[in-house]
Amino acid sequence: MVLMRLTLYLSGGAADSSRSAAALRNIERLAKRIAPHTFDLTVVDVLKSPEVAEALKILATPTLERSLPLPSRRFIGDLSDIDAVMVGLHIALPSELGIPSAPMPSGD
Q1: Region class of 8: left (phi > 0), else alpha (psi between -120 and 50), else beta
Q2: What are phi and psi of 40, to 5 degrees?
Q3: Which is nearest to 63 in space by CA: 40, 88, 38, 39?
Q4: What are the domain boundaries of the chain?
Q5: 42-76 in b/e burial notation, b at 16+ Cβ within 10 A?
Q6: Which residue in 69, 76, 77 sits closest to 5, CA to CA?
Q7: How far apart are alpha carbons 14 and 25 in whole angstroms?
Q8: Does residue 97 carry a pLDDT above 50?
Q9: Is 0.90 topped by the overall pTM?
């Protein structure tokens, strides 16, 4: 049973682009963080499948989309901050990641 479905949209494969290679490495790091969960990962090269990018309105790469569970969420850009990716995709809350809450600014 798939609990989470992720799709990574890239411009060129890992051999073609250092950004794509870095995104794939970061996805591997993400996979280690969410290993207890069951998930599917699909990688789409938008240069090879421009019709997919157009249909889904993928305007920038890399883009990581969580399509399941609903509602879907997208994280666009640098995937190197795994905690930010997880929070952005609602995979985990900051408190679950051990990230302290930012102090509220005082009115002084």
Answers
A1: beta
A2: -110, 140
A3: 88
A4: 4-94
A5: ebbbbeeeeeebeebebeebbbbbbbeeeeeebbe
A6: 69
A7: 10
A8: no
A9: no
